[in-house]
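Why does residue order matter? Because the sequence determines the fold. Keep that principle in mind as you read this record.
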Amino acid sequence: MRMTIFARGILLGCATVTAALIFGAVSARADSPPAPADAVVARQKVIQDLVLANHILFHEGLVDAFGHVTARDPVNPTHYLMARSVQPPFVTAADIVELDADSKPVAKDAPHVPLERFIHGEIYRVRPDVRAIVHSHAEAVLPFSVVKTVPLRAICHTCGFLGAGAPIFEIRNVAGDSSNMLVQNIPLGAALAKTLGKSDVVLMRGHGFTVVGGSIEEAVYNAINTVRNAHIEMEALRLGKPTFLTEGEAAAVSKTHNASLDSSWEIWVKQAEGQMR
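Structure:
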């Protein structure tokens, strides 16, 4: 009998402490008081959901050998959790690493972590409301990152979080015109976070995009629907001048999308389960 992804998730959660001894997902320091039991349980749930998020985003075509998803650490909110440098469909609880406020692995013997982790660390630093972040190179979004006259803005009722348009991060303004376009240090991450501002999505010129959420589920929802909005907007532009959501409509649908988060998440998990078998 094949084990479902939910059953695997439960086992992965139970294995978190063992995994932490290997990769430092749970840092144990002699000079640190033990974390409250509820925070430890919350961390196990976050790690389980982070594994699922990697699988979902791969199945939905948002991440492959590139791209990543992270979550703020409920035990130490100045830290965050991220998979080591391994392809998203292969991520397990044993691959989750804890990083500090400067995006350095907490464990001295931690494995390699993604180069662009500073995208996440610097957003967490300035956005206390953000609990999870997704960075993707989805091709459908890229055209809107290089054509400033056509903003990626909310065009359908599942994409109100895009509002009047996602800001565009221009790395040349910080790194000059000869960079490799990767956000690979704190100054670049800080500049990206500044461009994001209070928005939920920031486009990265010729590179990809980054989305935030108040939970892992919301960050995944926003990432998937950013790509869907890009597809719909591009098709609408082929026909003529699109009618976008008004500011009021975007705000209203954003307030109500939480009702669809759980059901969407369950469907995406089920679909990813088939992919992982």
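The longest strand covers residues 208-213.
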